[in-house]
TrEMBL record:
Residues 28-230 form the Tetrapyrrole methylase domain. The lineage of its organism: Bacteria, Pseudomonadati, Pseudomonadota, Alphaproteobacteria, Rhodobacterales. It catalyses: cytidine(1402) in 16S rRNA + S-adenosyl-L-methionine = 2'-O-methylcytidine(1402) in 16S rRNA + S-adenosyl-L-homocysteine + H(+). The keyword Oxidoreductase does not apply. Pfam families: RsmI_C, TP_methylase. This is Ribosomal RNA small subunit methyltransferase I. GO terms for molecular function: rRNA (cytosine-2'-O-)-methyltransferase activity.
Length: 302
């Protein structure tokens, strides 16, 4: 991790931070860790990492480095690697520690645990077994990207990583393309161009924001339509950690014939009011207008 807040050469006075050694109570502590700048860690996170009985991490090397940066010793404490490839084998050891009344701090590779990482089953099992599960909020690449994107934040949908195969990726895009929300995607820097090209097959003018290397030295935010950004990205892709955000879809212009055709299909399988609501949402038209048309169609049939 990179410490992006060094005071060297700036004339700034170093801060004196107090890290508590008081042990936390028994339970599982989900510790958010920096996505770039090491000083983004919270004081409470440092307290728990300093005093928990057992430490678990998606990548133990990253956690060791973070502890070194902030001067937190292991003091002989157990450090457990817990990731996608060993979660089933390691979960019993963590659960046994919780059963014994220990405090366990789980840290993601970077950012908030359980957001696109393997910790959710551990948290679920711990909660189901009656153990305390505590969140230590902090850095999140998804929320940091949403904050700087300039896109609407009142409603957003995080959809994780796209499938690598092109066909599966197109089907995955169809699953969220019409959702009335800002969509947040984690993507490999090598495949971000292909992701935009796939979206361009149906919606080339979708407002898009690409955030690269957030909180790091070479942080960059790119804005434009999906087509414009796809053109800017080289064939080999980008470098660094990538978050892609898509604005809400543009309103679909539908004439009465299109509305009638959609209603005709649905009225045979669901109540009139539900069919009208479905079509209104699909074509982004006022519900009252579509409902009136559905009533008219029903009367015509009768």
């Amino acid at each position: 991790m990179e410490d992006g807040a060094s005071t060297a050469g700036t004339g700034a006075r170093p801060l004196s931070l107090s890290v508590s050694a008081q042990p936390p109570g028994p339970g599982l502590y989900l510790v958010a860790t920096p996505i770039g700048a090491a000083r983004d860690i919270t004081l409470r996170a440092l307290d728990v990492l300093n005093a928990a009985d057992i430490l678990a991490a998606e990548d133990t090397r990253n956690l060791r480095h973070l502890l070194d940066i902030h001067g937190i010793p292991l003091r002989g404490r157990r450090l457990i690697a817990y990731h996608d490839h060993n979660a089933d084998r390691q979960r019993p050891a963590v659960m046994a520690a919780l059963e014994a009344g220990k405090s366990v701090a789980y840290a993601s590779d970077a950012g908030t645990p359980l957001v696109a990482d393997p910790g959710y089953r551990l948290a679920r099992d711990a909660a189901e077994a009656g153990h305390a599960v505590r969140a230590l909020p902090g850095p999140s690449a998804a929320l940091a990207a949403l904050s700087v994107s300039g896109l609407p934040s009142d409603r957003f949908l995080f959809v994780g990583f796209p499938p690598a195969a092109a066909g599966a990726r197109r089907k995955w895009i169809d699953g969220w393309r019409e959702v009335e929300a800002t969509v947040i995607v984690f993507e490999s820097p090598r495949r971000v161009k292909q992701l935009l090209e796939n979206l361009c097959e149906s919606e080339a003018n979708r407002t898009t924001v690409i955030c690269r290397e957030l909180t790091k030295k070479f942080e960059e935010v790119m804005r434009g339509t999906a087509a414009e950004l796809a053109e800017r990205i080289p064939e080999e892709g980008l470098r660094g950690e990538i978050v892609v955000l898509f604005d809400r879809p543009e309103p679909v212009q539908a004439d009465e014939d299109s509305l009638r055709a959609a209603l005709s299909v649905l009225l045979g399988s669901m109540p009139l009011k539900a069919a009208a609501a479905e079509v209104a949402g699909r074509f982004r038209r006022p519900r009252r207008e579509v409902y009136a048309l559905a009533v008219q169609m029903k009367e015509e049939r009768e």
